[in-house]
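Minutes, project check-in

Agenda point 3 was the complex the collaborators sent over. CS summarized: two entities, 509 residues total, and the question is how they sit relative to each other. Sequences were read into the notes so everyone works from the same version.
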Amino acid sequence: MIDYLIDFASILVYTIRDVMPIVLLIVFFQLVVLKQPIPHLKKMILGGVYVILGLALFLMGLEKALFPVGKIMATQLSDPAFIGATEGELANWRSYYWIYIFAALIGFATTIAEPSLIAVAIKADEVSAGTINPWGLRITVAIGVAFALALGTFRIVTGTPLYIYIMAGYIIVIIQTFFAPKKLIALAYDSGGVTTSTVTVPLVAALGLGLSSAVPGRNPAIDGFGLIAFASLFPIITVLGYAQFMELKIRLLKIKTKKNAI
Amino acid sequence: MRYRKFILQLFKKLWAAVTDLVPIIVVVVFFQSVVIKQPFPEIGDVIFGILLVIVGLMLFIEGLEIGLFPIGETMAYALAKKGSLLWLMIFAFALGFSTTIAEPALIAVAKEASIISSGAGLIENNQKIMDIYAFGLRLTVAFSVGLAIVIGVLRILKGWPLHYLIIGGYVLVMLMTLIAPKEIIGLAYDAGGVTTSTITVPLVTALGVGLATVIKGRSPLLDGFGLIAFASLLPMIFVMAYGLFWF
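CS then shared the predicted structure for the full assembly.
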């Protein structure tokens, strides 16, 4: 019990340290630059305390539950004995299929729980007056991350150069941008960056480093990176795709109603 | 009566946090029991951890709605009303810089990068130089995020179309990739993703949406978003430039 309390206290101190610069910045601007008292001070402080406490609890829970299990699973799944390859020899990329499935599912699951994405989804729902469904957005982004991680682990196993994938992704995004509804482009671009936060980054980093040290011939220093880059690129593609799909649906519906009217 | 309503609300919020975590639990249980076929290591700790995550997530979201979002918006209104472009820019830069420089994920990545670079013989294998290299990397990323928020805010004010700027950024990333040292490319690409932390995202989003709401002729949906996109693009370019500068 005492151990838990000490753990929690140290995580709480770290969280407060992270939040401190923001608090100082806001206080400085309100009092010195804007020369105004902070409105609804009590409520804001309460909200700040909730955020800090919530984040600290969340992080501690992750460290106790998710991270150890995730790391163990990533090493077990890439273990040569599990894959059925001889030690020190590179197995066919297909033998790693459980890794790809695991990467995709864990990417999807962690993205659904990502607090930053929840925050952006709430805002998008509010701003669009309910036309952007928060769950629709979160699931679309999560599918993007799932695909990204499956492809990213495939890249680590095969050892193909990272930049080729990223460039191909950029080209797809650029083409989509010209066809997607203008209203949703900004949100789609943002959804790339928000997916990789508290939950996803540590787990994905562990997966990348674990896999690249388990696969023979891969150097964790060079091949271990890149999963986060994938995870922040592919959600842009899926969200843009979702926006195009929704627009198409609305257009088809309009044609239908027109026909019916005639 | 009031208590009953309060408790009902509390359960509703707890339930929302539980549904957020269901996918993770399903995936982990499935892989442990069906694929790996091994008993859970320290099941008690895991269950306790999940409970903490649920309560933490609930508190965080509650805090977002009553604290972080309103603060971001109030600041946006007040700064727009003050009408001083300079102070708005300083605020934008300071927000990006200060939240990034202390970001734990970035500190970890920078340290890792210094070890890799010295291992590859790109910088001298000497603790002092490695520390300078890691700190320089953090400064570079924090500076680029600050600059990204400034550009993003300017875009909202001027109403520049986002996609031209982002596509321009992509082209720059591609060009930099061609000339940057190979060892830094993976790291630079990842640096874009790790900079946007859980507290920064809600604040920056509220700032952008708040500004786009106040300024006439801007739509919150069309113009309010996009700040995060800059904050994950610019660090890539700057980290590659940092690599070029060192080697």
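Noted in discussion: Chain B has ten helices and no strands.
Follow-up: revisit at the next meeting once the mutant set is ready.
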